[in-house]
Design goal:
Layout lengths: L1 E4 L5 E8 L2 E6 L10 H8 L3 E6 L16 H14 L5 E6 L1 H13 L4 E7 L18 H26 L11 H12 L3 H13 L3 H5 L5 E6 L11 H7 L4 E5 L8 H16 L1
Parallel strand pairs: 3-4, 3-5, 5-6, 6-7, 7-8
Antiparallel strand pairs: 1-2, 2-4
Length: 273
């Protein structure tokens, strides 16, 4: 792992593998760059440079008290790209990381960006409202906050099951995979993890999506129990100009098994095109 320091003095850890056109990955909540290990290896072995950072407050990055906001996450991403002087970047974001990618483009434009990939991503907005009836009710997010606050260790163990669709008939998700989710989640600081819930659930990315003017792949499982596709990818695909929508039948939120293999193939095809 390497580290750089942001303009507000936060140390951010990141992985940097391979050489070639850079593919920069943003992870979901409450994980870290380890969630992208398979894809980092994949792109690095196929002539690209794979880079993934631990969001502030997560993984090996500094345990922050302040700055746990979507705007600051996007600015951290921008400062990572600038510190490495990257151009022609392919941005890939999963879940909350997809929101981070969208907000980065909304705040910093696409001058350094060649393509974008939004996988199981939270945009346009997760929270149910009069204008977003397909969204998830606030009670669900209040429940996440309560679980994290009361016993985050048990909460993360329980969350791994729907995250990977292990509660579906015929699922073959290993205990090791669920343990991996728990281990990464426990590396996130309590304050940062708690603050991030509001950011991924209530941030409205509609204007950010309208600013995306590079080729974009929107990928989502239609059995995603964490970020339901109806309020997410299906709407995002209508807001991003000339986006390509890829729906994976029966696939969960987290990359696992055949779903991960299918996404990896689509990711390679997209970044090579």
């Amino acid at each position: 792992m390497s580290t750089f320091t942001t303009s507000d003095g936060t140390d951010i850890s990141y992985k940097d593998l391979g050489s070639g056109q850079p593919v920069v990955f943003s992870h979901g909540w409450p994980l870290n760059s380890d969630a992208w290990e398979g894809q980092l290896r994949l792109v690095a072995e196929n002539g690209f440079r794979g880079i993934a950072h631990d969001r502030r407050g997560h993984g090996r990055s500094a345990q922050t008290w302040q700055g746990n906001t979507m705007d600051r996450y996007a600015d951290d991403l921008a400062e990572l790209i600038e510190s490495l002087d990257l151009d022609d970047v392919i941005l890939v974001g999963h879940s909350t990381g997809g929101g981070e990618v969208a907000r980065y483009i909304g705040r910093h434009g696409t001058g350094r960006v060649a393509k974008a990939v939004l996988l199981g991503a939270v945009p346009p907005v997760m929270l149910k409202s009069d204008t977003n009836p397909e969204g998830t009710p606030i009670d669900a997010f209040d429940g996440i906050r309560a679980g994290v606050e009361a016993d985050r260790s048990q909460f993360y163990q329980d969350l791994a099951t729907p995250f990977y669709g292990a509660n579906r008939e015929g699922a073959t998700v290993s205990q090791g995979k669920r343990d991996e989710f728990w281990l990464q989640s426990m590396q996130a600081g309590l304050k940062a993890a708690y603050d991030c819930i509001k950011q991924f659930s209530e941030t409205d990315f509609t204007e950010d999506l309208a600013n995306i003017d590079v080729p974009t792949l929107i990928a989502h499982g239609d059995d995603d129990q964490i970020v339901p596709i109806g309020a997410a990818a299906l709407k995002t695909a209508q807001l991003v100009k000339d986006a390509t929508l890829k729906v994976y039948p029966g696939a969960p939120h987290g990359l696992v098994g055949a779903f991960e293999q299918a996404f990896n193939a689509d990711l390679l095809d997209f970044i090579r095109a």
